[in-house]
Write a structure and sequence with these properties.
By secondary structure, this protein is of the alpha/beta class. The chain has one domain: Alpha-Beta Complex (Spore Coat Polysaccharide Biosynthesis Protein SpsA, Chain A). The protein is 27% helix and 26% strand. The protein has 6 helices and 13 strands. It has helices at residues 38-48, 62-69, 88-100, 121-128, 197-206, 225-240, and strands at residues 7-11, 32-33, 36-37, 53-58, 76-81, 105-109, 112-116, 136-142, 155-157, 163-165, 174-182, 210-214, 217-221. The strands form 4 sheets. It has a 7-stranded mixed sheet. Helix 2 links the parallel strand 4 and strand 5. Helix 3 (88-100) crosses helix 5 (197-206). The N and C termini lie far apart (36 Å). 44% of the residues are buried.
């Protein structure tokens, strides 16, 4: 039987400052897209990919998010509490590792949603995972064809899927969607406290162990109220079609 991850880490502890004023009174993962909180879109994708557990970190307006997640039947929800201190993406995963376990796992931003192309992108990511060669495998979108993204790109992808950073003052087509698979060894020498996953990804690049796979479909980074309006328009038209 082909390997599939049993657990995902859903990053939901951020302050959502770019989404204000919608996040003045609710955490960003509860902001609605197409009548459903952003985090519910994520959890539905995980269930469809047969992920059994979602470890969700909470910080800003954590009580609201916990109450909402308590209604979730599947996947099993495990809370990683960051009320005392916000640990950023890397520190948040390190805090949650005892709850995640020793197997490779998905890391999924709570504001990363998309319209599928041909097949399932999470399945595509899972099928491309090779734990012998990889410490992390990223799901990448074409930035120019994405919603809510207007940067110069994140990574250069080699023909074999290996990634390197976009050189400064250059552009690259690929942007990180906020979804990846990580092996726990990626965190073996991680610092304590607050730090970004970018630090560990750079170390994986140096070791030739950071890889990417291109997603199919339309990725939507719902990071601002304006991006939410555009995503709503597209998802609503997709529903109508």
């Amino acid at each position: 039987m082909a390997w599939r991850p049993k657990t995902a880490m859903v990053l939901a502890a951020g302050l959502g400052t770019r989404m204000r004023p919608l996040t003045d009174t609710q955490p960003k993962p509860l902001v609605a897209l197409d009548g459903k909180p952003l985090i519910d879109h994520v959890l539905e994708r995980l269930v469809a990919a047969k992920v059994q557990r979602a470890v969700v970190n909470v910080h800003y307006l954590a009580d609201q998010l916990e109450r909402h997640l308590a209604k979730q039947a599947v996947p099993e929800i495990v809370i990683s509490d960051e009320r005392g201190v916000l640990l950023d993406t890397g520190g948040g995963v390190v805090r949650a590792l005892p709850k995640i376990g020793a197997e490779p796992f998905i890391i999924h931003n709570s504001d990363s949603v998309w319209i599928e192309g041909v097949g399932s992108n999470l399945d595509r990511l899972i099928e491309a995972w090779d734990g012998d060669r990889m410490d992390s495998l990223m799901l990448l979108a074409i930035g120019s064809r994405s919603i809510g993204y207007d940067g110069a790109g994140d990574f250069i992808m080699e023909p074999d899927g290996r990634l390197r950073r976009r050189p400064e003052r250059e552009q690259s087509p690929f942007v990180f969607t906020g979804v990846s698979i990580a092996h726990p060894r990626l965190f073996n020498d991680a610092p304590k406290g607050r730090f970004s996953l970018n630090r560990l990804w750079d170390e994986a690049i140096e070791a030739d162990r950071l890889y990417g796979v291109r997603m199919e479909g339309l990725w939507m980074h719902v990071g601002t109220p304006e991006a939410l309006v555009e995503a709503e328009r597209i998802v609503t038209s997709e529903d109508a079609g």
